[in-house]
Amino acid sequence: MDTSSLPRSFRLLVTGGGTGGHTYPALTAIRTLQGRLAAAGGTLDVLWIGTADGLEARVAPAEGIAFRTVATGKIRRSANPLKMLSAANVKDMARVPLGVAQARSIVSEFQPDVVLATGGYVAVPAGLAARLCRRPLVLHEQTVRLGLANRKLASSATRIAVSSESSLPLLPAEVRERAVVTGNPVRPEVLTGHPDKAVAALALHGFERRLPTVYVTGGAQGAQQINGVVRDVLPWLLTHANVIHQCGPANVDELRAAAAGLDPVLAARYHLTGFVGAELPDVLALADVVVSRSGAGTLAELTALGKPAVFVPLATSAGNEQAHNARHLADAGAAVALLGEVTAHTLHDAVGPLLTDPARRAAMAERARAYGRPDAADRLVDVLLSAASG
After folding, report:
1. For the residues of 35-86, what is the DSSP string, one character each?
2. Residue ranges of the chain with pLDDT lower than 70?
């Protein structure tokens, strides 16, 4: 978008959160819009409506973003419709009208140029309030299928930004014309890592650089399922690769004990850590193969970087979205998806060909990159600006 046409000041109301999957795309969009306006001499005024106990309650104030909470109702899902009528669900649903009234008051007072909703149950009252106050509403969906909150808000949206072309046919026909493919915003720092910095920061001096490096991650808390199967294949894995294993802070001692009997040469190729922080971009740059869950944020980062991945979806993810995400890339040859029971044997068979065949690894990297949208934040900001002006 031409910077000369940018507004001098812009008011953005953001709603969504609960998890990083809803929070970080919103934060990246805010930073991108802020940067674009600042470059043209403009200013951005942001207000975030979230939950008091969600990740956004820590992230927004830490970024200097004004933060408000409203009453929300969390729907506890069940395959049995009768179980959806649980006392807890009925009680929470009764809170939604209160949340909408509170959000309407906030929206009316703040008068945003546009409202961005990124999902999570807190987005419902604020999204409905946007409609009541006649403010443009842009939904952003991180996963292949619309999440529960965005399904509730779709008919109220001015534009629906989706992360993948394959989402379009899954949208209700009546809202499809309002959809645009932006991709899922990726934090820009993730794209600027350097392999040698990871080696220095983590003191990976026993790594054999002629071998590929595997990065294993189960998210901030680690994943017992992934930790267990990696532990069981470790001696074999370390004969073919270096391994950085982010296992979760609570699991370090157990895995360290399991690795204690390794041959010293193999042990030197194994870096075990509870948590990977600021060095994550460099670790990703060093990694030739990633073994991980398949949340929307992880997919966005790995495809933007063009990283071959073996996904072990979290079976309990909302709407089984991680399995859908993983299958979507696996069907295109852009990843391997381990669906169903995951054992040391299935992990061995999935990772082995990627480690021993550089050409196969390169082909998967290229297919992954074809799905990546490193410019997703800019595309989403374009949608926000056009919704506000249209």
Report:
1. HHHHHTT-EEEEEEEE-TTSTHHHHHHHTT-EEEE---------SSHHHHT-
2. 1-4, 74-93, 220-222, 318-319
